Design the sequence.
């Protein structure tokens, strides 16, 4: 259970971080992607193709030329979808930005915040 | 309605920069609040006591040295029962030193506070902050 002071500081920090361009753009891109049925369909198809190929490889079999071609077409369609690419770019931006924020917290704290909060296994 | 024609390009570009600066300032304030917490004070005190305890240093070094010796076997999963028992004995002896136990408990307690704060921040921003705030990321 967090103390009131720490809880308030975390909420206030979260609020400010939410307004940072990298985070705000990522949230917009994520919401737009979620609401786009074409992009969702392409991603579902990509997952299905990847799962199919993984199953084939796990079974020690070689995928057919047709299966590989379907995968290539699916990947090309995903790469050509602006909504998916915008989400990917925004994700990369936010993954570059958040460690900068983490280092700022660590500098003020005098200890490595990112290590302290790292999920188990990292 | 806001008339964009009255705003110059420099003014428009300054808004995101201001938001970014505000976020970094808030990060610093948040870090300072964590530093002022009783859990962090306890961790600092535990660290100081640990550093001044010769018995703790001996126990930590003994465990660390044996662990380093057996690192390859441990990584390959080929530790013998005797080697495993030896490591467990040294680890138990290390944790039995009061200053070590206090330090471990203080680290756990402060880590728990930090993880809780990360969950609060994640809820605010809609992104897993704990997994993404370290350089190189963590979980993708």
Sequence:
């Amino acid at each position: 259970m967090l103390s009131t002071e720490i809880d308030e500081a975390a909420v206030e920090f979260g609020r400010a971080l939410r307004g940072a361009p990298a985070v705000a753009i990522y949230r917009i891109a994520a919401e737009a992607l979620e609401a786009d049925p074409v992009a969702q369909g392409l991603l579902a198809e990509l997952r299905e193709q990847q799962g199919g190929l993984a199953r084939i490889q796990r079974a020690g079999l070689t995928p057919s030329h047709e299966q590989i071609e379907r995968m290539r077409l699916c990947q090309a369609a995903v790469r050509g979808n602006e909504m998916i690419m915008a989400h990917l770019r925004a994700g990369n931006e936010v993954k570059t930005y958040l460690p900068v924020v983490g280092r700022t917290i660590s500098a003020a704290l005098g200890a490595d915040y990112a290590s302290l909060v790292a999920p188990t296994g990292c | 309605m806001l008339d964009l024609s009255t705003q110059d390009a420099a003014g428009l570009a300054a808004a995101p920069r201001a938001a970014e600066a505000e976020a970094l300032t808030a990060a610093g304030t948040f870090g300072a609040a964590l530093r002022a917490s009783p859990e962090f004070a306890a961790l600092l005190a535990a660290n100081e006591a640990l550093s001044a305890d010769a018995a703790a240093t001996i126990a930590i070094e003994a465990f660390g040295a044996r662990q380093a010796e057996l690192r390859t076997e441990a990584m390959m999963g080929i530790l013998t029962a005797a080697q495993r028992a030896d490591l467990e004995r040294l680890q138990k002896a290390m944790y039995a030193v009061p200053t070590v136990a206090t330090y471990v408990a203080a680290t756990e307690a402060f880590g728990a506070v930090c993880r809780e704060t990360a969950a609060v921040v994640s809820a605010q921003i809609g992104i897993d902050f704990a997994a993404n705030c370290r350089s190189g990321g963590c979980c993708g």
About this structure: The mean pLDDT of chain A is 94. Chain A has one domain: 4-102.
